[in-house]
Structure formats: structure tokens, C-alpha cells
């Protein structure tokens, strides 16, 4: 809502309250003022004048030499380039020495040899809002009404001395979508009087035109009033009205339409004017539309109705969509002499629904959607009729014809004083509370600590006790509410173990050199298909019903695909190495059509590509499979997660020889692998390694770990090395398993220290060397004991894997 | 014999002084002091001396032996010292050369801010709750006093999946969920950080995905003054200084009275600058007293209990704290951006 300071000043005396101060008061009162727009953008020394003579310019086809009477002793000689300049026009003249918006200064000059003593201004040159002006005013000079005097300050004539406050209204304060509403609010905030003019109904003079109103959808339209005015002379509305409309951001059109808009701004009650001659028999029937029915609206678009579209009809044909837009067939246009003015209360839900469905939002629908004040339906109508008579030459041709279902009841809300002080935490005196209601103009009685407050219909946002508490707090002053800390029962605050663990993971990865990233939950199905899922194979990505773009269509089921994008983005910005991770939820469901909330599972994914931090001593090599595997093992160790194994896998999109499923106690919990070179190069990436873990089993294992002290060994250990030749295809992991099971409880640890292939080993073979550490808790092992177990290990390796001991 | 000892002494002294390495010194020790060394052989000739002379020469021989011993030891440590000095010289490095880098990553600045918020509220006795990102229309709107036709739904156009399921537009649904899970017990003191989604085109100040931290306190006798006190305590810890704060009336369907909280500008301290649009104040969050209807939906008798709720944007807090000017930076994952927050 744009509020003219000068206009408001008519209703509430703003003496001593600057626009800035007013803005501050409103903002502190809960009506946020977003911007203060001074309409005068530095215009100085621009006056009105009359064009006396227009002659061609001797040196330029497009220029004209005008003689302008601007109230000075001598007429001014002004060269003008506007095509619409004509003798007899009243115009705005920037005199020599004048200033225009943007710091433009006007001087006496010569244009193509002809002296020019100033400039005839266009609306735009004066800083008026171009897009709200009629076309002819956008293109040429601004032509003022003939009755405007000569030599007057153009700023005053054009209303440019005003200041407009732009209010950012919250949805509950639709009462401030009108000047009256703002006036009540300001009067309450400043504790000043409010003066609102009252208009009496005008009775018809001469023969009455027939009017009949039928409400066929009373739920959607319980109240409809209308009055007919004839003898209308359609034309421009007066300058002052246009100025106010412009200040409010509304385009002036013609006097009839301008009056309906003006009254809407005054009262907050949208009005519509129909061409009475197009309304059959003067009958108005308000009903719901039928499926298949269409209405061509004022903007020339034919719109389909449904059975909940509320229509204004004349009994035979629709002439408008209620509260949203009038019909083309009943438009007030050249030739219209008689108008039927509509003032009604339409149910907010109905208008909201239709406006949404048609994608049509207007000043009118915005107000109806939020609920207009039924008490203002008739006053707004009579005010419009009065203005039609005063400004458009109209004669009243019917009395007010109104149909209303039900009565408007007074709303009484009770407020308990102790509840008020309890909720606010401040001791407000009864006197102060009563004072607030007096300023709000809410009639109030108080009895035994209970206020009975009569809430006027202009404030539909107030219906329960707490609404009144808010009103009191607002006007009493939020700044008078002290600051205390809750004193009630104490509660231990803490993160849950899961939350703490997620922090540990994120901090550990940071310490391991990974940058945490956050990608969007919404992605494209194609992106997700780039890598075959290893987790949640059956999950169907959930689609958004109306996506904003193809890139943001489905909820992700995996975090890895977007990490490829992140890496690509950074590599394109000359990053040599990228190590990133994300910890976020993925959305898992097997349902084709979602009927219940999906499972939201925490996932951890990472990506490593390119060299890590080169150093002057040596260039660190590019990472390989084991760099990333080692990091993961380090992380599992940090979390105390045991029982992890890696098993070769060949999911699509990954390198078939360098990818593993990660298992924990036999269950697949993740994937680790090199991205397939084809996939990687599609993202301009070299060797790239990724991993992804389902965090739930990891969390569970980490939280279930038991840390118990064991006495330190008292007896020395013995180490034996073991070098074997085996078939190249046998995984070392299998050998280790065999060693562990054969070594039994005396075997404390196995560590691989060498793997190689080569001629001396033989084709298709590899040499593997382990170091085995034996120890017993209760005695020093003898050589014989160790030899026996070790021999057993060797024997099992020979039997199970055909291993040959290297001597 | 005396002369012999004296000349041995002189000769040895010279040789020891001239020795240039421990090996040579070792040889000298053997030569003079060894079992077959020259002093020993002189002593062996003692038997030929007169009994009067014997003790005198014996004393002299001992003295010479001790002196030689002393000189050799002194020379030894001298050589050792020289060798150590040489080594230290050899080992000298240019300390201005760069160190071997340890790769350092970073926690995302948004999560870093969320962690700080969590820590502050945990310190004030809050628990950290979580809720689903795919939420039901009921919890996201209806239970929060936003029925289907409510005009306030305009404030947040939503990503619907089905007519009943959507991506949550706010973390507020966790309010009712938390109350329900507490089953009427008090106090309820939770915060809930998380992702939220709205149908906004991404630009410098909008993002279709962003984060929020919701807070809720329900107990007997909770008043607005406590809301103010709690939030001010938070702001002072977050921005690390004494701050002025003010509450302004606002509107949220699920709180009443509703407020927005401003703090004195963290950049200029309130004197007015570009960041605070020369007002001296910066809005940091929305809050209010829990609406009685929301309390009832959570299973709490609104006559017996009151509460307050608040919601803040970690993006906004990070913008203010670090002077970031474009919200898209949080989701672009440019390493040049992320690296700036490594030490957060």
C-alpha cells in the first residue's frame, strides 16, 4: 500500500510529524514502512505556462519554436522537440535556472541557432512514474488541464510536493489497504483525532431507472449494493485525483474508472462500474458459473469458468467475474452515458480461489481476498455516486438498491487483565489499557479485571483475547517490555548422540582436508541416473508436482552425482585438486505415487580428484583408490566402527576394476570407487574417486561401540614374517581372513608389507608378504608354540588358496 | 730418565695439540698411554733407578701421564665440539621456505553458523530437535493456524509433491511435532535447525532452498519478556558484544503477539551505515508468543501453559557476521568461497 502523506494529513492532523517520523511510528507499531518516496526528486523552478504560438524551426524539421506565456513580463521563446506540442496547451515550463530530477540543470541556450529560454517538460522529465501514465503522456510533453493557471509552481499542480510511504503490510492488516484504515491506525499511534468525511445517499432526480439485485450464491456474496448514475460525460478526471491515483501507483484512465479506484483507496472497498445499457432490464444476478461457461474480461481474454467461479450476470449473460475483473461486454467506454455502480462484499475464499485459478491479481481482488469491511459497502457506494455527480456530470438515476443476507453483528471480545500482564511479563496499569482502547476507538467497559471490548468491523483480525493482548502490547510499546530469562524448571540441554556423531564426522573430514559442501535437495532425474545406485536400489526419486525447472525436478536419492558437478565447477575455475564431502538427507521411497512421507536417510558422500597441495620439495601425486580407502578406514577407526570390509563391485558409471561395495558385518552400507573415465571426462575431470555411505548403520555401530579397559600385556610378543606366492586373482582380503581364522587367539595382528608381481614370480602370480604378531595374555610364548600356530597358518593358506611359501 | 719424561711430555703435547681428528687422537693415546705405550715403557725402566730416585721419578711419570690424559680429553671434546658445529652448520635450513602443507578442509559456513547457534541454545538448556523435510500439509500449515485458504499462505509458495505432501516451507512444523512428542510434559525447550524450501527464483537475496533454526519454549508462566531476554542473550553471544535490541510488532499466523527483533547494527554499532540502510538497526529474526490454537494442537492447555517461538535464518546471520553479499554463494560450493571460512 502506497500512502500519500498529504492525503493522510486531511484525515489526521500530521502537524509536527514529518514523513520520516511517521514512518518510524508506523514501523514501531507493526506497520512496516519499506520505503519513503519523496515525489519531488529535486524539481525546482518549473512553472505552468500557456503555449501561445508554435512555429517551425528554421534549421531543423523536428524542432518547433514556441512562444510561451509563463507569467513573466515577457513571453519566453522555447525550442521544443515534442511532436504533440500545440498552441493553446497549458504545459509545465522549466525556466532558465530550473532543476530537474537527476541533477539536470536548465540554462538559456541556442538550439540549432535559435535561442531557447527554458524547456517544456514531459511527465517523465519531471520524475513522474512513466509506466502509470497514458500513452500520449509517455511520448510527448505533459499537457495540463486548460483551467490551470499560468505561472503556478508545477510541483504543486502535479502533486509533486507530496511524500509517499510504501507500507509492507502483513496479511492480517488488510484494514490498512485503505486511507481510512491507515488514518485510524495513525490516529491511534499518535493519539490524535481522525476526521473522515461522511457522504449522505443521493436520491434520484427525475425518472428512476429500474434496478433489481438477486443473490443466487449467498455464501459467496452475502451483500450486494448498487446505484445508477446517468448523464455521464466521460473524460479525464481532475488533476488532483489523477495525482493521488499516481501517488498510490494506480494509472488514471477516465473519470468514471478513476472515481471507482479513488473511492477504493479511500474506503478499501473495491467498486465496479458497468455500462448500464448493457445490463439487460437493469437486473443483476450474482451466481456461480457453470462448467463450460466463458466470460471475456476487460483485458480481452476469454476465460473459462468452473462451478465455483462467482459471476455477475444480468440474468441472461455474465457481465463480469465477481471481485476479479469486469466483462468486456459491459465496459464503460466512449459512448457510455449511464453507469451502474457495484459495491459488494464477496467471500474472501471465493475470490482468492478464482483469482489464483485465473492468475489474475488486481487491486480489487487483493482487497476482497482479505475481507472488506461490510460496514463500508454502502458508504463507499454513496461516495462514488457523489463524485460521479460532482466530477462527471452525472445525475442520480436510482436509489441505492441493496440485497443483504444476515446482519452484521457486533464483535465483543473479552480480555482478562491478569492474562495480559502474564503473557507480556510487564505490569500494565488498567488505566493504560483503557487508554489503548480509547486510541483505537474500540468502545470498552471494564469490570473486575475483565475488559469487554467492542471491535469494529474494520478490524476483522481481532476476534480472540490474544488479539487484544497484541493490540495493547503494540500501542503500549514493545520497547517497554523488559528482558528476563525463563525462570521455570531447568532442563539439561544437549545434542543427541546422533547429532554429536554427525559433527564428529564433519569435523574429522575437515581435518582430513575435505571441504564440506551443500548441494540442493532437488535435482534432475538424468543427473541421478549418471551413476548406478549401490544403496537404495529400489528407490524411486520423488517428483515435485510443479517443478520450476528441469534441473530441480526430483528429490535426490544419492549425494554423489551433484558432487561431480561441484568438482566440475571448481576444476573449471582452475582448482587443481578438489576434495569435498556432503552430509545430508536423501529421500527414499519405493512408492510410485507418494501416499506417505518418504524415509529421510542421512548419507555421507565424498569426492577426491586432482593433485593435493603441491609442495616445493616434491609434487604430491594424484590420489588413487587407496588414498580414499585409507581415509575411509581412518574415519571408521575414528568412529570406532568395526567389521568393515570391501568387496569388488561393478556398478554402472564406475571403473569396473576399481570399485568396491563397503560392507559392515555383511550388510552393504556404501560404495567406494573411481568414477568411470567416460563419466569423469563428461565432467572434464581426470581420475576421480567418490564414496557414499548410508549413515544409519555407521551411526548405530559407532554409538553401540563399547570402550572397556584391558590390562596391558605383561608378556612379550613374537613376530613372524610370511611371504607367499599365489594366483594374481586371489584378493589379499581373502588371504587375511584365512590367516586370522587359522591363527586363532594367539594371533594379535596381521599386516601386509609387500605385494609385487614380476618375472621371477611367474606369469599370473603375485607375491604377498605379511607380518604376523603372536602374543598370549598369560604367558610368554615358547618358540615351539609359535612355530606350531604359524605352521598351521601356512598349511591353511596352502590348502585353501594354493599358496606357495617363498623361501 | 727425567729428561726422557720431560721430552716425552713436550713431544706429546705438541702432537696432541696438532691432532685434527678423533682417530689421530686415539692413536696418540695408544702411543703414549697404552699398555705398550711410551710412558709405560719408561716406567718399566724404573727398576734400574736408585731407591731414592724411584719415588721422585714415579711421581713425575704419574704427573706426565695425568697431564697427557687431561690434554687428550680436552682435545677430544674440542674435536667433538668442532664436529658438532660442522654438522649443525651443514644442517642449517632456510626457515623462510614454506612448510610441508597438511591439507585442511573446512566445515560449510552455514553449518558452522548452525553449530554456533546450537551451542548457544544448548548452553541455555535447549534440546536440538529434528523433523522431516518432506512434510504434511497438516504440520506445515494447518496445525500452525494456516488453513487452506489463509492469505498468509501467499507469503510462501510451496513445492508440493501431492496435495497433502510438500517440502516444508519452514522449520515451524517441528513446533507441533515436538509438543506432541513431549506428550504434555514441561518444559519444552527445543531448537530445530534444518533445510526449508520455497518456490522462489534464485537471486542474490532469494534461494529456493535455505536453512532456518526454529525455537520453542513451552512452560507455565512463560512471558514475552522472557522471549526478549532469551533472544537478546542469544544475539550477544552470536555477535560477541553488548548489543541494543528492539522488538517490533509483526505477524505470523502461529504466534501472537508476534514480533520481529532488531539488533543494533553489527557493522556500525547503530550510528548508521549501508548495511543497516542508515537506520542503525538490523532485523535478525521473527518470533512471538505461541498462538493458543497451536498450543492446543500440540496437546497443551493454552490456559495453563504459555510459550514462545522464534525462527531465524542462518544465511542471514552468516551474511551479517561475515559480510557476504549474495545468498547463492552458500549453494555454489566455490572452493575459493569455502576456503575463506576454514578457520570458523
Architecture blueprint of SSEs:
The complex is a heterodimer of chains A (about 800) and B (about 350).
Chain A: E1 2-4, H1 5-11, H2 19-28, E2 32-38, E3 44-57, E4 60-69, E5 76-80, E6 90-100, E7 104-105, E8 109-111, E9 114-116, E10 119-120, H3 135-139, E11 143-144, H4 154-157, E12 163-168, H5 179-190, E13 212-215, E14 223-230, H6 239-247, H7 255-267, E15 271-275, E16 283-288, E17 294-296, E18 302-304, E19 310-313, E20 318-321, E21 325-326, E22 339-345, H8 348-358, H9 363-370, H10 377-392, E23 395-396, E24 401-404, E25 411-416, H11 417-424, H12 430-440, E26 444-447, E27 450-455, H13 465-476, H14 497-511, E28 515-516, E29 522-523, H15 525-529, E30 554-555, H16 560-571, E31 578-588, E32 599-609, H17 625-639, E33 644-648, E34 654-664, E35 667-675, H18 677-682, E36 688-694, H19 695-704, E37 718-727, H20 732-743, E38 747-756, E39 765-774, H21 783-801, E40 804-805
Parallel strand pairs in A: 13-16, 28-31
Antiparallel strand pairs in A: 1-12, 2-12, 3-4, 3-6, 4-5, 6-7, 6-10, 6-11, 8-9, 14-22, 14-23, 14-24, 15-22, 16-19, 17-18, 19-20, 20-21, 25-27, 26-27, 29-30, 31-32, 32-36, 33-34, 34-35, 35-36, 37-39, 37-40, 38-39
Helix pairs in contact in A: 5-12, 6-7, 7-10, 8-9, 12-13, 20-21
Chain B: H1 2-18, H2 22-33, H3 38-44, H4 53-90, H5 109-123, E1 127-128, E2 134-136, H6 137-140, E3 160-162, E4 165-167, H7 173-182, E5 188-197, E6 209-219, H8 224-239, E7 245-252, E8 255-264, E9 281-290, H9 292-297, E10 306-312, H10 314-322, H11 329-332, H12 335-338
Parallel strand pairs in B: 1-5
Antiparallel strand pairs in B: 2-4, 3-4, 5-6, 6-10, 7-8, 8-9, 9-10
